[in-house]
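Q: Here's a chain of 190 amino acids. Please give me its 3D structure as tokens.
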Amino acid sequence: MWHGGTHERKNLVCSSCHSVHGGNYKNLAKPTQMEVCSQCHKQIRAQLQKTSHHPIREGKINCSDCHNPHGTVTEKLLAANSINDKCFECHAEKRGPFLWEHSPVTENCTTCHTPHGSPHDKLLVAKRPFLCQRCHSNSRHPGTLYAQSTSQAGQSVYSTLGTRAFYRACSNCHSQIHGSNHPSGKSLAR
């Protein structure tokens, strides 16, 4: 796979990553895989410095746990057939099958999560509820800024709940966002 692969096209050779005279783990030219890879992938190193990140810099996993630097037929040199296949190797509880599926989970984990690092919890690409609102309209939903429904007292639900409830997040009620086997089938609710 090396021939014609991404790293060969960028004129990397064995000694770009490996020490010819031996060294530590797999004869790397640097003490850790992260140091070797981040020589070129500086933007990934920056992402790994964010508060929410995979434990690569802590040494609990390596770049090669997800990527094959010597080449693959997949995008981003993934060491699996798809991003979901790779994610589910460690996060099997999110795979399903579920009675009530949430389509982004079956389509692509990176719809909601970034693989390397994020300023948001759980490697999310945006804060909740804004992440949810990328796909789900926030209008006419009780407790949102644009709610059209009213409470029994005739006040808008938004004014009744106040801004504090709005900013808490969709997952307060819709906690089973990866999918649910709950017999009621209530919109991925608890």
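Q: Can you summarize the key feature?
A: Residues 146-165 have pLDDT under 50 and may be disordered.
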